[in-house]
Amino acid sequence: MKALLLASEYPPMIGGLSNYSYNVANRLSQTHDLTLLTRTFTSKFEMLKTDYALWRKAKKIIRQEKPDIVYSLYFRIPFSLIHGYAKKCGVSNVAQGFGTDVIRSHPYVKIGRKLAYRISDKVICSGFFHKNSMVKEGCNPDKIRVVYDGVDTEVFKPLYSREKEELRKALDVEHRFVLFSTGRLVKRKGFDDVIKAVKILEKDIPSLTLLISGEGKERRNLEHLIKTLRIEDKVKLLGYVPDDLYPKYFGTADLYVAGFKTIGTDIEGFPITVAEAMSLGLPIVSTHHTAIPDIVKDKMNGLLGPEGSPEDLARLIKLLYVVPELGRSMGLRNRQKAIRQLDWSVVVRKIENILLEVTQRWT
């Protein structure tokens, strides 16, 4: 199969979409003739500084190299226009949406995805929440395929007890009940609610420590909140953690906690951090937010509460502290589920099958 892949973000850009694009491109290129176009600079692929440059380059590839399919990652008007040109040239099309691009009401974003719904042969999304939203907006449900985000289960794997002890010592969290929360420090991640939950629990769980990995514009507000609540000894903002250390720091935790919440039209897609926690074999405490209930089944492999409620997060964290065997069983289920459903080899194979399904319709 000869494919043209349009990626909205790509390394060295940091983030879930960039990571997703890299893994898909890397794995598909091993067995297929793949050309990737992105506006993000990379050493391997050409940088296209403007959407117009990307449009011209894509047209040239479609016209001269005649790919079997054009596949785009993220709903954007320029990508949809390229899909339209490809369709006129008899080339198959698959578009994929992730999170904010599926739900945002901004006219520019909305036009991009609605064009994708009409032009594309198939549309991929990362959860049934997104699928329902797309159907309500007019996308033919027969076109939609749900594919969860992926994780490298060999990188994100449970730590040996000795390694875990050594890392806990390095982080100065020995003999503590450790929570881990991670991501860009923005409001929709709900770090403020997790910090407030720690304050609520300080008497019930004296050994409680929260580690937060990530950087972002909310850092100052979070620092101020921690100081105001007088829990500087219980919450550590780790900042940016290098890729080689990140899975290890994450793996020192007793559980993963995330207070995802809706801020206006700003929502999470399919949080890759949830998949990482599952792969590490950690129990999960989070909220009933967008696609999270698709993979975190309440009381099965995690505990979910309402959005915007530090009190409920505190209650769920306390339950896993008081009943540790419940957390252990949830962690085991998460590890098994990650290997079965979320490993990159499984995810990219599903995408590959969708692309082949579409191209074979035209042969």
Explain what the structure shows.
With 363 residues, this protein is an alpha/beta fold. It folds into 2 domains: 2-150 and 343-360, Rossmann fold (3-Layer(aba) Sandwich); 161-342, Glycogen Phosphorylase B (Rossmann fold, 3-Layer(aba) Sandwich). The chain is 45% helix and 16% strand. It has helices at residues 16-28, 51-65, 77-88, 100-103, 107-119, 128-136, 161-170, 191-201, 219-229, 246-251, 272-279, 292-295, 310-322, 324-342, 344-360; strands at 2-7, 33-38, 69-73, 92-96, 122-125, 144-146, 177-182, 208-213, 235-239, 255-257, 284-287, 302-305. Strands 2-1-3-4-5-6 form a 6-stranded parallel sheet, with helices on both faces. Strands 9-8-7-10-11-12 form a 6-stranded parallel sheet, sandwiched between helices. Helix 3 (77-88) packs parallel to helix 5 (107-119), helix 11 packs across helix 14 and helix 14 runs parallel beside helix 15. The chain is elongated, with a radius of gyration of 21 Å. Residues 41-45 have low confidence and may be disordered.
